[in-house]
Amino acid sequence: MGRAFLIHRVRAQNIAVESDNKIHDDQVAAKYGFRGGLVPGVTVYGYMTVPIMEMAPEWLERGSMTLRLMEPFYDGEEVVVRAEAGEDGSIAVAAGREDGTACARGTASIRKRSQPAPARLPEHPLPAMDQRAAPSSDNVIPGALLGTVMERLDLSGRSYSERLLRYSNDILARNFRLGPWIHTASEIENWAVAREGDKLSARGRVLERFDRKGHEFVVVDVTIVEGERLIQTVRHTAIYNPRSTDAPR
What we know:
Blueprint: E1 4-11, H1 26-30, H2 41-55, H3 59-62, E2 63-69, E3 78-85, E4 91-96, E5 102-110, E6 145-152, H4 160-175, E7 182-190, E8 199-212, E9 215-226, E10 229-241
Antiparallel strand pairs: 1-3, 2-5, 2-7, 3-4, 4-5, 6-8, 7-10, 8-9, 9-10
Helix pairs in contact: 2-4
């Protein structure tokens, strides 16, 4: 791939105002130092994949992307996505505000067809919604399997990339009784393309739990499978217990 440069502009939409994650609610987000409800990180990721797909459509089948979410977008803001392809075939992509503030960065690449796929995580029973425990250092245990989320792929009103990464959010939300929480980073590997209506099995495992600057973080590995086909693997990082503005720093 030769060097290329693309700009994609889109108006940010906070599609999660009514979701259980109240970090997307204006009043709740203000308690954590934000000026409004956060546009979901998976939505921002969806915006960032648009120029990647223009440059390299095969990315959906054998591409990877490291994603870091640094600053939030708010509903109605213009998102400016800039993507630049390097001589080595990688694509550097950044999403920022019109004033130049960088809010998210990523690096995408295309994998060789001969690279072997990783082993699938096993399925594991999902707790009933009323039996989910609030996450803590006592029950967010590295190595522990998470309950499997099984759903048919529904692309209503959402991009394919956004919806697929949302399964990694769902793994957390369906296994733990979360308060307001924040998606901060993902390492995504695409292995095949799922289609609307496919029944997907999203399987997870806790990789790591740590504290930083008053926030409590979790890192999970996620495997998404359709039948015998591996669709996507993700290393997904989130703040499951963010520090509030009145907490000591």
